[in-house]
C-alpha cells in the first residue's frame, strides 16, 4: 500500500496528483497520513481533487478515516490516517 504524508503546508493539487498517479499505476488502496487540523484540511481537499482526476478512468475514490498513535521528536501524538480506495 502506498503511503502519502501530508502537512499543513502541502499543496493540495500536488498531493491530488500523487494520489491520482498511484491509482493510475494500479494501486487499489493508499494511505494518507496527517497530523493536525491543517494537514487534515489539505488532505481532504487533495482527495476531493483526485476524485475528479480519476473519474474519467471510471474510478470512484472513497475515504475511510482512522486514528493512530505516532512518536514525533520523542512525544506521542495522535494522527489521522485516511485510507483511500477505489470502488
How would you sum up this structure, described in words?
The protein is of the alpha+beta class. The chain is built from 2 helices and 4 strands. A hairpin with a 2-residue loop joins strand 3 (61-72) and strand 4.
List keywords for this structure.
4 strands; about 90 residues; alpha+beta; elongated
What portion of residues belong to β-strands? Answer: 35-45%
Series of H and E elements? EHEHEE
Mean pLDDT figure? 94
Major sheet details: 4 strands, mixed
Summarize the structure.
It contains two helices and four strands; from the N terminus they run βαβαββ. It has 87 residues and is an alpha+beta fold.
Structural topology:
Layout: E1 2-6, H1 12-24, E2 29-34, H2 37-54, E3 61-72, E4 75-86
Parallel strand pairs: 1-2
Antiparallel strand pairs: 2-4, 3-4
